[in-house]
Design goal:
By secondary structure, the chain is α/β, with parallel strands linked by helices. The chain has a domain of 177 residues: Isoleucyl-tRNA Synthetase, Domain 1 (Orthogonal Bundle), CATH 1.10.730.10. It has 18 helices and 18 strands. Bound molecules: 5'-O-[(L-methionyl)-sulphamoyl]adenosine (MSP).
Length: 519
């Protein structure tokens, strides 16, 4: 594998980022960081989707220009991702000049080759979906199934994209590539949607929607949101822009495009058709994640239960986002819905990160200091069958990530942590020390610490700060690639002194954490 390109959906900026948006960015960042351990070249893209009627309406209600409104809100997203240590390579905004020009070029190209045509149309438009709805998208009262609001009747002469022309090729692609859509159970849903697919509107009359990208050859029309938004995945790499930096050639096609299940149709149908029309390769995988609820309830402004990642970090006084990253990344098996609750968050991260993993390292290092003044003696260094298990875990974790099973991979890491904890309990180095079985005691500590090196690497994508602290105390090079991992990291000699030992993660309810919180 020579490169890895991953993208997230770009978020609408009509509000502040919530934990659902954060879930997706965390998942993608964990995937990107994992693949950084397998290739030298990873590019992660995220950004904001800033055009459309909703932004136009909200900004005018606030007596702001749409651009001012977008600037203010886009910053909330970049701030949130900074807080969560989302290590993106580029943050694209659909109001970026380069992007706008590239979208205009794409539109003209499709128009010229006959994939876009003008057509008079009457349809039901839902501003929440930023899409025209069909009968099946409405409930018995004629409301949008998702937004529970009556769509607006829109009659316009718009440009249409010949989606139907690509229907058979898309069906073939999905059927021939069973892992194209992950989780695979969603592929059937898409195939069903493809049955009744029609050509789609890709522009609006400027008089009705002005906040959009102008159609170059028709000043009365603006390019409608989805063609603008979806193109970000290639314009961000310089496709069809003046500043073509060679990134497109290097990174496209994407290895995985991470999105929520609600926008799978746009990505596995519309996006594929656009790429086919542009004669470009298709992304290798689309990962459609599930929905995050709060205390098992759907988040909504009207219920007042919209939770931001910032509010959680502040409420728990977290100095680092690792605990929240870990909790969110493991919130649901791949593609399934997950939930956030304060109690569960506290319980889970205390159990996994503090009690099992952090404590294991802390105890082992403290015993090494207590019994051997922090020194590993040559005679402690022996091969162990546990190394075989650790090697297997590395393979299993890689296998999970090959299918973007982020939560499942964490379970494998936890199993290894549990196994090492059991090994320590079963061998009781404290008893061995008391009974003067010095060599055996040292061997148990050495074996444990050696495997902690592997664990720090494996946990790194989820908890980069904790992993770095672990690696520092183990004098382990955390940049070791997964394929180069050996079990000879801990060398004979002084490893650590008492002063260097620090807990890598404080229990959320510990006195120490409370103390830090109040400072
Ligand atoms: N702007 C479009 C995406 C265009 S991609 C070319 C959009 N924006 S959004 O802000 O509504 O959603 C952004 C992403 O966040 C989507 O992938 C969406 O599924 C995800 N989520 C929004 N709320 C969510 C939850 N409650 N839970 C999990 N993810 C959710 O759609």
């Amino acid at each position: 594998m020579d490169k890895f390109y991953t993208t997230t959906a770009i978020d609408y900026v009509n509000g502040a980022p919530h934990i659902g948006h954060a879930y997706e960015k965390i998942l993608t960042d964990v995937i990107a960081r994992h693949f950084m351990q397998r290739t030298n070249d990873v590019f992660m893209l995220t950004g904001t989707d800033e055009h459309g009627i909703k932004i136009q309406k909200t900004s005018s209600e606030l007596k702001m220009s749409p651009k001012e409104f977008c600037d203010a809100n886009a910053k909330k997203f970049t701030d949130a991702w900074k807080l969560l240590d989302i290590n993106y390579s580029k943050f694209i905004r659909t109001t970026d000049e380069d992007h706008k020009k590239a979208v205009q070029n794409i539109f003209e190209k499709l128009l010229k080759q006959g994939d876009i045509y003008k057509h008079s149309y009457k349809g039901l438009y839902c501003a929440g979906c930023e899409a025209f709805l069909a009968e099946k998208d409405l409930d018995e009262n004629g409301n949008c199934l998702i937004h529970k609001k009556k769509p607006e009747v829109v009659q316009e002469e718009n440009y249409f994209f010949k989606l139907t022309k690509y229907k058979d090729a898309i069906i073939k692609h999905i059927k021939n590539n069973p892992n194209f859509i992950i989780p695979t159970f969603r592929a059937n849903e898409v195939l069903n949607q493809l049955e009744n697919i029609e050509d789609i509107s890709v522009s609006r009359i400027k008089a009705n929607v002005s906040w959009g990208i102008d159609v170059l050859s028709d000043k009365e029309q603006v390019i409608y949101v989805w063609i603008d938004a979806l193109s970000n995945y290639i314009t961000a790499l310089g496709y069809d822009t003046v500043n073509n930096s060679g990134l497109f050639k290097k990174y496209w096609p994407a290895d995985v495009q991470v999105i929520g299940k609600d926008i799978l149709k746009f990505h596995s149908i519309y996006w594929l058709a656009i790429l086919m029309a542009l004669n470009l390769p298709l992304p290798k995988h689309i990962l459609a994640h599930g929905w995050i609820t709060i205390d098992e309830t759907k988040m909504s402004k009207s219920l007042g239960n919209v939770v931001s990642p910032k509010s959680i970090i502040e409420a728990f006084g977290l100095k680092e986002p690792d605990a929240l990253r870990y909790y969110m990344a493991t919130a649901a098996p791949v593609g399934k819905d997950g939930n956030y609750s304060d109690d569960d968050f506290k319980e889970k991260v205390n159990a996994h990160l503090a009690n099992s993993m952090g404590n294991l390292l802390n105890r082992s290092l403290s015993m090494l200091v207590k019994y051997f003044d922090g020194e590993i003696k040559q005679e402690f260094i022996k091969d162990s069958i546990l190394f075989e298990q650790a090697k297997r875990t590395i393979g299993e974790v890689k296998h999970c990530f090959d299918y973007f099973e982020v939560a499942e991979a964490a379970l494998k890491i936890n199993e290894l942590v549990d196994l090492v904890n059991k090994y320590v309990t079963d061998n009781a180095p404290w008893t061995l020390a008391k009974e003067n079985q010095i060599e055996k005691c040292g061997e148990v500590l050495y074996t444990t610490l050696e495997i902690m090196c592997t664990i720090s690497s494996l946990i790194y994508p989820y908890c980069p700060n904790i992993a770095l602290k672990m690696a520092k105390q183990l004098k382990y090079d955390i940049n070791t690639k997964l394929d180069d991992m050996k079990f000879n990291n801990i060398k004979a000699g002084k490893l650590i002194s008492k002063e260097e030992i620090t807990p890598v993660f404080l229990r959320l309810d510990s006195e120490l954490a409370k103390d830090k919180k109040s400072k």
